[in-house]
Each structure stands twice: as structure tokens, then as C-alpha cells.
Amino acid sequence: MALPSVGAKSVLVKLLAAPINPSDINMIQGSYAILPDLPAVGGNEGVAQILEVGSQVKALRPGDWVIPRDAGLGTWRTAAVLAEDDVISLPNDIPLFSAATLGVNPCTAFRMLSDFEELKPGDTVIQNAANSGVGQAVIQIAAARGIQTINVVRDRPDLTQLIDRLKAMGASHVIKEETLRRHEMKELFKTCPRPKLALNGVGGKSATELLRHLQVGGSMVTYGGMAKQPVTVPVSALIFKNVKVKGFWVTQWKRTHSQDEGALRGMLDELCSLIRQGKLTAPACSEVGLQDFRKALDTAMQPFTSAKQVLVV
């Protein structure tokens, strides 16, 4: 692509690293909530470095690291000329992969832990897809706030290693999907309170099981649907436990708060502070050169993929 000249309020950036997320693949498949006009550049997340700024750009300077403010920017490329308002700066003293993967999953985790229930130290959150990018961020942000997590994962050949890895991140409990339906849950709730908040990235039976374990008046927030099955809510949970069933999409949150400069800035600053303290690390990443994008996409679509594919320019 030929790059346009840098206008008064635009910036020239060099892309440094951009991950492949499930939502990026959904966008290519045409099944995502926002679809760019074609021809389009894939990728909704990543970190870039500013090379040149327009004459009226005040807040950014060459050398700064920036990430997209919104989805649909197209990060799987080597360079771009973007409007100043399309990006927001990050400190460049955090690890590259932490910066590249900050805008979607950690922000989703941060908002879900902040906006739906008033969680205090000692409270419990239960989540499925605990090994996902969002799941790993939830574990770490919750641990930093003194909140216990019950983390549900699918059974797999390397389950023991996965449990150890999640516990090393700060997970209080890690259990298999099947355990949700067993008597062992009663024993677990002798050691921690029933969760006020359930986070659902799967749907189907898994979501229904999360709901069953919520405390009275608790909330289940759905942010993904890996199982491609609808969420079924038991009538008893609505009537007798008065549970709340909600959804969350970080892109919508960013658009709703687009005029509130402090909201996104404050969240990113808090996340970067956790990163600097070693309390929030990037998910396991596999570095792939941009020219090997086909291999990276194929790998990203395999089941039980533990490492996030990151395109490096």
C-alpha cells in the first residue's frame, strides 16, 4: 500500500508487534459485530512507534509508543498514517508484548472486575476460559486486588502444567469443567465464599454451571462465546437467586467513553503500573515474522493453543 502524506493532525507510525486474537479471525470470517469496508487490513490490536507527527499534533512526538483507541484500525502491517485521535500513547518502558496485548484482553478483564459488582478483598470471582488472554488477565488483576478466583479450564493432556502455570499467576483454585457439576464444589465453598461475579467466555452448558454457583444477587457477565452455544439460564436462578445476566464488549465501552479522555487513560495507567510491579504479565506469546502470517493464522485457530501468535515487524 502507498502511504498518504502526513497531514497536520496525523502521525506516521511503524508497527512493532500485533497479536492475532479470536475477534480478529471472527472479523475475517465476517461474523464479528463490526466489519470494515473491503479491501481492509486485518488486526485490531498492537503497538506502534511514532516516526513523524503533523504540524498540529501536540500530545505525541517521534519515538512514542502508541496503541489503537478503537477496533478496526488494521494493525497487521509495517507502517501506517493515522489520525492523532486514533491512537493513545503508552510508556515505552514496559515489555513489548505487554504493550502489544494491552488494549483488548487486560482492558476487558479490568472493566469486568470493576463495573458490575462491588468486589472487596476476600470476595470470589468464578470464570471459565481461564487460560484465555482475558482469563489470565482476570487472575492477575484480581490477585492484585486481593480477590479470590475459581478458574475453570477444559481437560487436556498437559492439565497439571496448566494448573501450575495459572496458580503461579495468582489463581486461587483451578478446576476442570466436569468438576462444576460434582460434590467437590461444596468442599471448595467451605474454603471461600460463593462468587459475587461469574465471567463467561464460553457459553452453553459451561455458562449454566457458572450461574448455579453464584451467590444470591450475583452477576454473570458474558464477553465471549467460544462454544458457539447460547447461554441457558435456569428459571430458579432468576427467581430464587435473583442473578443478573449481562454482557460486555470492550469496543463498546471505549466508544461510549470516547469523549472522556481520563477514563481510558486512567485504566491504561493502572494496568501499566501493575505491569511495572510484575503483577500483570503478557500471556505466553509466539513471535512470528509478518511474512509468515499464514502459519501464524493457522496456529492461532488450533484448539488448546496456549501461546498467542504475535506478528512482529
Automatic annotation (TrEMBL):
One of its GO terms (cellular component) is mitochondrion. SMART domains: PKS_ER (SM00829). It holds the Pfam family ADH_zinc_N. One of its GO terms (biological process) is fatty acid biosynthetic process. Residues 1-311 form the Enoyl reductase (ER) domain. Its main location: mitochondrion. The keyword DNA-binding does not apply. InterPro entries: ADH-like_C (IPR013149), ADH-like_N (IPR013154), ER (IPR020843), GroES-like_sf (IPR011032), Mito_Enoyl-ACP_Reductase (IPR051034), NAD(P)-bd_dom_sf (IPR036291). Keywords: Fatty acid biosynthesis, Fatty acid metabolism, Lipid biosynthesis, Lipid metabolism, Mitochondrion, NADP, Oxidoreductase, Transit peptide. It is found in: Mitochondrion. The keyword Protein transport does not apply. Its EC number is 1.3.1.104. One of its GO terms (molecular function) is enoyl-[acyl-carrier-protein] reductase (NADPH) activity. Belongs to the zinc-containing alcohol dehydrogenase family. Quinone oxidoreductase subfamily. PANTHER family: ENOYL-[ACYL-CARRIER-PROTEIN] REDUCTASE, MITOCHONDRIAL (PTHR43981). This is Enoyl-[acyl-carrier-protein] reductase, mitochondrial. The gene is LOC120048315.
